[in-house]
Structures are given as C-alpha cells and as structure tokens.
C-alpha cells in the first residue's frame, strides 16, 4: 500500500503548497508582460477554490470546466478547482456545439471558470470569471480530502476515429511525472513554454 496515497503527499495541492512555502516570491508564471509569484498564484487559486465552495457547496470529486486561452488565469483556475477538492475539464470554447454537449453530458460539471470573454456554456451551470477573483487574498481553502488517487483532471480525445472519449487522470499520475523528473533542469529560473492547446493535455 502506497503511504503517499493515503496521506495526500502524492497530491498536486500538497506539492504546490510546499513549493509556495520554499519559493513564495519567485516567479511562477509569466503572462505577457506580467510576472506572477508563487505567493500570488497561491492567493489567486485559494480565492477561486473558496468561491467555488461558496457558490456550489462541496465540489469534492466533482468536475469543473475550465475554458479560455492559455494564460495565468487558466492556471490559477486549474489549481483552484483541485484545491477545492474537484477535478477540472479543460474545454476549447470553439469546439462544435454537439461535441461540447456530449462532453458536458459525460462529465456533468457543477461549474465553469471562463476567462477572457468566453461565454458560459449552460444557464444552469455556475459560471465564474477567475480574473474577478484575483484579489481575494486571505481566502480560506475549503476542507477537502485529496489523495494521490483523487482525480486531477479529465481529458477528451479528439474523436477523429469516432466518439470523443474522456479519461480521468489522477493526482499521482501528474505527481509521478514531475517528481524528480530527469528531463527537467534543476536550476531555479528554468522556464517552460505553455504551447499546447489547453484541451490537448
């Protein structure tokens, strides 16, 4: 039995919080001309998590759509969802309506985080703009239980060979990819370009 599975150390929120503790004032994300520190990203994502809990109740093990361009807001949204105990579904706002409907029926999200002018997807789904929640410093994180086996996100295939299929990715899978990764430089200041489309893993 993997002890990390039980105590949550294989969860991304725990990993993120340890990085914030060690590197709070270092740059976490550069978005156009703005640099955002780990402390700022921590506060932003905590504010999103708190607002999701306030508007939707517990989202433990529930899905939340994240839609918008590649940006600091989408990264804060992803972290916010997971820190609230849920899992996120990155969705391209330009996909055909019927494909979007099938994806929504499959994942049954409780909310949507939409940034940079992306419209809500369904009237009955709570839609929040992560930019509005950026200044919520001091927001308390909701109580959650997140382990390595908890879902981190869900990804849909392109559907080029038929119906798009969804796959749930657990926290431990992402943690194992980045933990002591031989392919990443160890020095501070290493930068990685977020080049892939949001809904393409």
Describe this entry's structure for a reader.
It is a single chain. This protein is an alpha/beta fold and 201 residues long. The protein is built from six helices and eight strands; from the N terminus they run ααββαβαβαββββα. The chain has helices at residues 3-7, 12-23, 38-56, 72-83, 97-107, 171-178, and strands spanning 27-31, 34-37, 63-67, 87-91, 111-114, 126-128, 151-156, 166-170. The strands form three sheets. It has a four-stranded parallel β-sheet, with helices on one face. Strands 1-2 form a two-stranded antiparallel sheet. α3 packs across α4. It is globular.
Brief descriptors of the model:
single chain; 201 residues; alpha/beta; four-stranded parallel beta sheet; two-stranded antiparallel sheet; 33% helix; globular
The tally of strands reads 8
The strand line-up of the biggest sheet is 4-3-5-6
Shape: globular
What is the chain-wise order of helices and strands? HHEEHEHEHEEEEH
Counting H and I runs of at least 4 residues, what is the number of helices? 6
**Mean pLDDT over all positions:** 85
What is the end-to-end distance? 29 Å
Low-confidence stretches: none
Q: Mind describing the biggest β-sheet?
A: 4 strands, parallel
Strand content: 15-25%
Nearest-angstrom radius of gyration?
A: 16 Å
- Class from secondary-structure proportions: alpha/beta
Q: What oligomeric arrangement do these chains adopt?
A: single chain
Helix fraction? Answer: 25-40%
